[in-house]
Write the structure tokens for this entry.
Amino acid sequence: MSNALSKVKMPYLLLMPGFIFLFTFFILPIVNLAQTSTQTPIVGGDTGQYEQTLHFANYLNAFTENKEQFARSFVFALCATVLALAIAYPLAYAIAFKAGKLKNLLLVLVVAPFFVSFLLRTIAWKQILGEEGFVIPTLRNLGIISQSTTLTSTSFAVVMGMTYNFLPFMTLPLYASLERIDPRTMEASGDLYANGITTFRKVTLPLSMPGVVAGTLLTFIPAAGDYVNAAILGSPNTKMIGNVIESRYFKIVDYPTAAALSFTLMAAILILVTIYIRKAGTEELV
Amino acid sequence: MSDVSSATHGDLRLTRITKSYGDFTAVNDLSLTIAEGSFFALLGPSGCGKTTTLRMIAGLEEPTVGSIHLGATDITTKRPYQRPINTVFQNYALFPHLTIFENIAFGLRRRGIKDVTADVNKVLELVELPHLAQRKPTQLSGGQQQRIALARAIVNRPALLLLDEPLGALDLKLRRQMQIELKWIQREVGLTFVHVTHDQEEAMTMADTIAVMNEGEIEQMGSPADLYDNPNTAFVANFLGQSNLIKGRIEGTDGDNLVVDLFGQKISMPKNRSHAVDSSIYAGIRPEKFRISLVGTPTRGNILTGGRIEDVSYIGVSTQYQVTMPWGQEVMVFEQNDDGVPPFDKGDEVVISWEPNFTFALRGDEDVEAGLEVNPEEPEEE
């Protein structure tokens, strides 16, 4: 009897630590954030003092004032995701199928940037793309960019920084799903009259879709909310929604607008991701 | 894509094929002709080069030296998708993201055939699984996947169908059933089947011709009966079934027969069943060819006296005896339990005898252990 009871209780017991953690550090803050998002300044109060007035217009104001930054966030995140996919897919493919003994070393190298702080790595990009770096002189000498063109403080720099920073999040899920493919299915495709390109289109790519979906989500979601890359590598003209939230919260201490922006961002990402997963149809895959 | 399947037909000819990986030679100077329409088996232990040979025929490996012809066409360097050859892979390699129907239609679609429904349905009927067309491969049992893998290959009506240990993953009972079924399907569709296996029973059940491979070379090639009754080498004698190999010396001839001395006892055997190069030989006799009798009972044919029964194993259809001969060697004797005579007992003094025509002779410098130390049941890792 007691045995059967503990069997029923066991899963819940195991879930407890995670649940307590999530409750304290996710549910409570999010409820708090939701409350904050509809507050208005206390009349005659100090800066940063707000009261609950269920002022839902905060959302409309927050959105209409920052439409441009919202749009930029999603465009930048999309660009970074596409670029990261273009770089990571061949890389993950090579590690999974062609690396041989170098496989583990290459995987370590993919993760190696994590040993250095995110901020430092982003600041390093500032130098790479700066006047003193090698990229600018090379591109100028090759005539690809004019002598007066700079790369720092541009949209290009922000997208490059995000692409670089999120590359491992794209590479690892791609590798994991490519590595799981039985190479014999690719041989079978060749055996059944498919050339290399057709085999990729009809066998390898469809079988790696779980990795593509996981990788693009792991890149797109944090990239859309990112503000470090835009802050360090961009200019006031390349502000993303993350930068707006950051400055509203820490500099202007306009908590309700920051909270409303956060919720709007969350909702937008949630909707986009849901549509994406529906379209990609990963649940059909094994 | 061009219709490769109707382009070439005819016998498959491998000419002096060698495949090396660095210092390791997987296949060594191998020449082979496989007649159109035959069921051909490449049989050998793990690492003998049979799978490498198959992969070269499929185009998945390129020979280091040598050429491969299909009919009059040289296909040595053709890519797999350019060859009218299809493979049933070990573990099947079905496409997990496609339905059974689309798996089978894959080859047809790649060749630009628009209406595949009739062909796919016909081949699904042939393997008796038409109701599974819309399932995914993971929803099928091993035996069903095996049939689908076969259907996916034969639907293309290739000039040559390669089977790489196709039954290796199935349990014994299902394997037996599929052996018979495969043989039937081969006759039904009339394609050339090349079958790679380490299982001698499987090869003997299905193939018209077997090539026994060892260390990258063909030891012997022939019909299952040829190989079993008259092996040329100790490897073949031991790898296909069991053999008693007794050291001996050719003393002279008597018409079409050889007179052979086995530890002081004279026996006779046909000249044409000797593969020896000089007078030093191993005389080979299959265990079931021996007859066993108590000392004093009349016997005929070749006789060896002085045996003592060391061990008796009753296994229903037959009884297996281990008999120690005067020179210390233990020989195996299988007696059918079909004569109502109670089995002999351990310690009985016996005479063994056999028909001289069942004797074969191998070279005296052969390694009598060849083909024994390898475990033929071990799955191939190549």
User: Anything to note?
Assistant: Residues 252-363 of chain B form a domain with the OB fold (Dihydrolipoamide Acetyltransferase, E2P) fold (CATH 2.40.50.140). DSSP finds eight helices and 20 strands in chain B. The two ends of chain B are 31 Å apart (CA to CA). The first strand of chain B starts at residue 12 and ends at 21.
